[in-house]
Amino acid sequence: MGLQLAVVLERGIGSAQLRVEDDDDDGDGDSEEDKSYYEHYKPKSTANDQPSAALVIDGKLIADEIRFRIAEQVRRMKGSVGKVPGLAVILVGDRRDSLTYVRNKVKACEDAGIKSLVTQFPQNCKQDDVIHALSTFNEDPSIHGILVQLPLPQHLNEEKILNELKLEKDVDGFHPLNMGNLAMRGREPLFIPCTPKGCIELLIRSGVEIMGKNAVVIGRSNIVGLPTSLLLQRHHATVTIVHALTKNPEQITREADIVVTAAGVPNLVRGNWLKPGAVVIDVGTFPVEDPSCENGYRLIGDVCYEEASKVASAITPVPGGVGPMTIAMLLSNTLDSAKRAYDFT
Description:
The protein is an alpha/beta fold. The chain has a domain at about 30-60 and about 190-325: Rossmann fold (3-Layer(aba) Sandwich). About 35% of the residues lie in helices and about 15% in strands. The chain contains eleven helices and twelve strands. A six-stranded parallel sheet has the order 2-12-9-8-6-7. The chain has a four-stranded mixed sheet with strand order 1-4-3-5, with helices on both faces. α2 (about 60-80) runs parallel beside α11 (about 320-340) and α3 crosses α11 (about 320-340). The longest helix is centred in the N-terminal third of the chain and has 23 residues, at about 60-80. The protein is globular, with a radius of gyration of 20 Å. It comes from Salix dunnii. InterPro entries: Aminoacid_DH-like_N_sf (IPR046346), NAD(P)-bd_dom_sf (IPR036291), THF_DH/CycHdrlase (IPR000672), THF_DH/CycHdrlase_cat_dom (IPR020630), THF_DH/CycHdrlase_CS (IPR020867), THF_DH/CycHdrlase_NAD-bd_dom (IPR020631). GO terms for molecular function: methenyltetrahydrofolate cyclohydrolase activity; methylenetetrahydrofolate dehydrogenase (NADP+) activity. Belongs to the tetrahydrofolate dehydrogenase/cyclohydrolase family.
């Protein structure tokens, strides 16, 4: 079947020795068609060397606080019921970004005392093998969360694979029933997708008022754009989505009090796209070559930080903004699943 158990981690907090390349996770992007459209609207840079005026929303600091509380609860669970949460990750292929994301998730699990298990398949694996692994984890009582690292190779049916995932273990929040409940008023999903959940947490913990505000979400993917817009609506914002067929995206974005970017296009949003005092959450991550950096590259976002930070009232950096929150929310969802399984409060 080609099933490979790549990593099994059950050690205590703080014992990880894994190499982690960066702190960001799961940058989301639109299709190539969308990206080419966005590129058409990218104005010339007007950045200068003036100091930043915006409050920098430190996602790493906020995520560290959340992860510390999670580790405390995991220790308490282990002392009370003799068990810890378990997360299984299914990885297909050897994409550099996916490998980095999975390493970071495994490291975070180990730091929190959460058991993690990674099953890796070759790029050309059979769909039945992936589904078999999913079924095995579905029935394993020590596994409370299952994550299929996206994107999958084109020959695999992503929808079919995700539909095989047990709803109670869908800690990524991508199961159609979780997404459907998120979209419906009066319904509560078992899990909220990690990156959108992290974006909202950043706003709330930074004291940003959402209710009654105008929000623009740039990008409409199922991973970030769509669920983020649904969450903002749940918090009573008036939400507009900017996508590949949106006319005058700069003008629409300029009317927003809150801007969340998930386009996957580097430096798409310039300072002149923003309303003075807007709050900017930059989900995009894009590696650019930089020989001065240890890994030979650095990460930038969808937002031209140098320009936007002179206009916005608050902004997330890349890296160190949304990425660390994505992992923290994954740990939170996994802990919540284990609490339900063990009836632990």
